[in-house]
Structure formats: C-alpha cells, structure tokens
Design goal:
Blueprint lengths: L3 E4 L2 E4 L10 H5 L2 E9 L2 E2 L2 H14 L8 H14 L5 E8 L17 E8 L6 H5 L1 E7 L14 H12 L4 E5 L5 E4 L3 E5 L5 E3 L10 H13 L3 E3 L4 H5 L3 E6 L3 E8 L2 E2 L7 H14 L8
Parallel strand pairs: 7-8, 7-14, 11-12
Antiparallel strand pairs: 1-2, 1-6, 3-4, 3-5, 5-6, 8-9, 10-11, 10-13, 13-14, 14-15
The structure holds 4'-deoxy-4'-aminopyridoxal-5'-phosphate.
Amino acid sequence: MPRYCYVNGRFLPHRDGAVHIEDRGYQFADGVYEVVTIANGTMVDEDPHLDRLERSLKELRMRMPMARGAMKLKVRELVRRNGLKDGLVYMQVTRGVAPRNHAFPSDKVPPAIVMTTKKMDFAKMKKFTDGVTVVSAPDIRWGRCDIKTVSLLPNCLAKQAATEAGAYEAWLVDEKGNVTEGSSSNAWIITKDGVLVTKPATNEILNGITRQTILDLAKQDGVPFEEREFTLEEAYEAKEAFVSSATSFVTPVVKIDDHVIGNGHPGSLCEKLLGTYQDYAAGRRSRAA
Ligand code: PMP
C-alpha cells in the first residue's frame, strides 16, 4: 500500500510530497507543528493537540489553514489511507509562500499545511521495559519555548550530543542549574518520598499534552505531585525519573549523566504511571474526573 501525505489540500504519495522553496517554514522556520499519537486508529488527545496548535499559531499571529472540523477529517482520511493503526500524525503549518523578506507577507498569503504519518509499535518498545539514559546539556533556546515552533536547532544540537553520548535524550539545564525539559520531551523526577515533580508550565518549556494528561491522571489516582523547579543535582539523587511525550508516553530514565537512578531499572511508580497512560491511550480510561 503506498504511503500518503497531505500537502496544501492534496493527498499525495509520500515520495511526491514537496513544498515551495519560498515557503517561510523552509526559509525562516516560520511555522508550528504538532505530533499526535494514533492508538488503535484513533488520535490520542485530539482536541488538546488542536487547542495547542491554535494557541501556537495565535502567539505568532498566524491562522489555522482550515477549520478544526475540516482538519480532523483530513487527519482521519490520511490515517485511513495509510492503514495506520498505531503510530503518529505529524502536522505542520507555516506562514505560507512569499518572496523572501523577514517581515510578514500580506494577510492574503494563505498558511501552508503538511501532514504525514509514521507507523510505530508501542506494544514492543524496549525503552518502556528497559528504561533509557539521558545526558545534561545547557538550555540555549529562546524565550518562547511554550510555542511549538519548527525552529528546533538548539533541540537538534542537544539531541545530537545525547546520541553521540549513546543516550536517548538530553535534559536541558538553565543558568540557575534547573532542569527545564528534554530536547523533545518533558522531564520528571520522583522524590524519595514518592512525589512526582516536574517544572511548572512557563514560557521556558513546552507544556506537553502528555505532561498535562499524566498530571490529570495522577490527580485522579491520588498520586502526590508538585509543579516546581528541580536542579540537575536533585535529579541525580531522585528515586525515579522519566520523560514524557506523545510518542514516548512515560519512558523511565535509569541514568542521568554518570548517576544511576534507583537500582538502574525502571522504578515501580514509573511502571504504574506508564500502565495508567497506556490504558488512557487505548481508551480504557478517561481524563475527566
Ligand atoms: N518538550 C519539547 C521540547 C517537545 O518537543 C515535546 C514533544 N514535541 C514535549 C516537550 C512533549 O510534548 P507532548 O507531550 O505534547 O508530545
């Protein structure tokens, strides 16, 4: 079965998907994106992702390329055409195509949209059972990390450093020594007292949809949590740690730099939270109280 993509109103074979050389996403990274998990053919947290997409666009004074209902239909059609059961949908909106000039083009220039899908087998992921390692890296990003922009060069540099160190993820550390988040995930620790800790959602991090779901589910289940700053030193001493994102769910972290976390294997609260999130993604439980 050919793999399809969606580009500016058309479903095309994936290999034929292309954008114009003067697309502002290509020229200036002037665009935003979302990654949504597909579990059992259904989008996980569809509306929260579309809410965040709308917010990112609004913050950058861009508009949605189509109404939300139409967008949902396009995603469903792409998922259907690609026979996607488990995996992700990537959607990207840019400020459109215009002669190269830093200032915005006229309002008449329509935003450009691209959507692709990728198959993934969430049931067989070794990272869930074995855990992963992370390395720290300085957070050199801009002041609006709450916007999900395609301008990801500092994140790419950090992820490359992690890859070269044989690690799964880089945890970004600000000038005060606090962990902000991962290069493509949110960062969490669990204290010796079993309290879940993650940084508050400020302009310094992307407020992950998975992050929000985990907090809601923790609240429902009476798991104590705190949204507060934590330093790299505190993370080294944590009982457990994990990263979250649409495609990494709750991925246990078993080593940070040279510090083994717990006994070097995924801890019990991580395993519980992963199970809870997997149940949620599969539609076996809901987020509403
Ligand atoms: N932070 C960053 C920098 C990210 O790139 C991502 C994933 N796109 C996340 C956090 C996690 O967000 P989500 O749970 O919505 O995937």
